[in-house]
Amino acid sequence: MKIQFIIAGIIAATALLNAADTKRPNIVLMYADDMGYGEVQALNPERGKIPTPNLDKLITEGMTFTDAHTASSVCTPSRYALLTGRYAWRTRLQTGVLTGAGEPLIAENRLTLAKMLKERGYSTAISGKWHLDFHYDGPRATVGTTIPDGPITRGFDTWLGFHHARSMKELCKDDKIIEIIDPIEMLPRTTDFAVDYINKKAADAKNGKPFFLYVPFGSPHTPILPTEEWIGKSGLGKYGDFVMMTDGMAGRVIDSIDANGLGDNTIIIFSSDNGTSRKCKFDHLKEQGHYPSAYLRGSKADLWDGGHRVPFILRWSNGGVKPGSRCNQLIGLSDMTATVADIIGYELPDNAAEDSISFLPAIRGKQIMSEREAIVHHSISGHFAIRKGKWKLLLASGSGGWTKPVHTTDGPQVQLYDMSKDLNEQNNLQAEFPEVVFELTKLLESYVANGRSSSGPAMKNDAEIDIWKRDSGKKKTAKKKS
């Protein structure tokens, strides 16, 4: 009789575990390329002229974070922080981006978002742009050349995509180049792969085997390549058409989740790696009444908010996210790792996600509780800014990026803005509040010295870091293109 009770208890416990297991959410993270805050029409109703019906609908169904920032205003460091929860300026990459055929920026032993989820039984996939470097065992742009240290060595089970914008003809699958294609085919092909992946994993997902799908679109980054069905749709030229096509591809991914009955138990996120590039003919768009950065100053590559404040839309019905809700709390996309860890009950080790805190409370409509006081911004030239509450300090005299003035020797060499009153960063208060400049500078110095901005034991950075860029005249570690 005692044995029967034990067996019954085991069966009941197993049933409870299985029930809990089926509640683990699928996670679909869509990450646009160079898509500023103002490109989503619902976020920029007065100055946004490009229709984005799918993302607008997602906003009505989920939560919009209005103060979400990438760790950098250019591609590679933004993606590194997203996947590792650590600022890329702690690595060898102090300026610019990577250009392919090099040592992976993510170290082999570093925990990634995908590795963490895989440890918890998730299937993991990436569909799109990598841009974190890998080697080629053979000639580039050649079918059959293998990739020994790409995404599938950093936690992903499968990958279809490309390295970066200038290698879009190389279609990669898992660990090799499988086809040389016309770059215009890349966005449709990778979206097809994402949709097919959801279709194939739907049955498993309903039976307690969730999936993580990372969809880093290669659009609307240059080259601007809308397919024929999208040309002329926006009325603002090919760039506007490409933004609409990006919205359309996001809509296909969302529709496939819903069509498979996975909508309630899937966290859907749409965001971007940085602001809109000036290469999209910024001034021409403004002449037509479209402002890609909405009401923010700057654009891609800059320290001003137009460079790194991005759309961040999250839908999760089972997580209690209220349709059409907004969150005005400050978050960084480096916080994805700690947030997902919080959701799945994963205890992060001390040597991982050093710049990541959980914003799960915000998703549930509560205040984020953390010992981290601020987030750090980084420009293409490697200049720093730090944001704490309403205050934002830039250790640069200009944009630190591509918007003029980039740097100036006239006037103050730092900028201090009260973001609660001056979102467009026009009124430099550094002379009026020297104590704030001092406080934020010391806080940034501590983040560098401790090797982390989250709580925990001090860690080591991979390189020496000069927050004032006194070595800016020396040879750079990466090219300044993106």
Can you give a write-up of this model?
By secondary structure, the chain is α/β, with parallel strands linked by helices. A hairpin with a 5-residue loop joins strand 13 (375-378) and strand 14. The relative contact order is 0.17. The model is unreliable at 1-22 and 473-482 (pLDDT under 50). It has ten helices and 16 strands. 26% of the residues lie in helices and 15% in strands.
Task: Output the radius of gyration.
Answer: 22 Å
Spatial order of the strands forming the largest sheet:
7-6-5-4-8-1-9-10-2-11
Fraction of residues in β-strands: 5-15%
Number of strands: 16
Note the total helix count.
10
Summarize the helix and strand pattern as letters: HEHEEHHEEEEHEHEHEEEHHEEEEH
Task: Please state the structural category.
Answer: alpha/beta
Helical content stands at 25-40%
Tell me the overall shape.
globular
Low-confidence stretches: 1-22, 473-482
Termini separation comes to 70 Å
Lay out the secondary structure.
Elements lengths: L1 H21 L3 E7 L20 H9 L1 E3 L2 E2 L5 H10 L28 H7 L3 E7 L28 E5 L7 E4 L2 E5 L5 H21 L4 E5 L22 H22 L6 E7 L9 H6 L24 E4 L9 E3 L3 E2 L3 H9 L15 H4 L11 E4 L5 E5 L2 E4 L20 E4 L15 H17 L32
Parallel strand pairs: 1-8, 1-9, 2-11, 3-12, 4-5, 4-8
Antiparallel strand pairs: 2-10, 5-6, 6-7, 9-10, 13-14, 14-15, 15-16
Helix pairs in contact: 5-6
